Amino acid sequence: QVRLVESGGGSVQTGGSLRLSCSASNSYTSGKCRSWFRQAPGKEREGVAAIRFDGPTYYVDSVRGRFTISQDVGKNTVYLQMNSLRSEDTAMYYCAEDRWTTCGSWSEADFQYWGQGIQVTVSS
Length: 124
What we know:
The chain is mainly beta.
């Protein structure tokens, strides 16, 4: 069973930075897409960024230019560097994984494996 574990969340002031990590076990980077989603209170879960096993990255417009997704194949870990954070970035952030064909999809239903989520809070 694939297990995804997020870390690195917390509280930060507006304009600050955080880096999230998603460590995968019982899985390999090859052939996979790993994505970050987030869910704010009272809102639906939304896609944020994704990275394909061979390198291409995908971002939603609201984070493009501020967030950077990357991966360390040797550590089987995906990162989300979040800069210039805004209050609207406050949410529970989730790591998700499925086959590489899901990259670019922001539909929850397309991803089979999920982490437990980690809270990011941005305050002024």
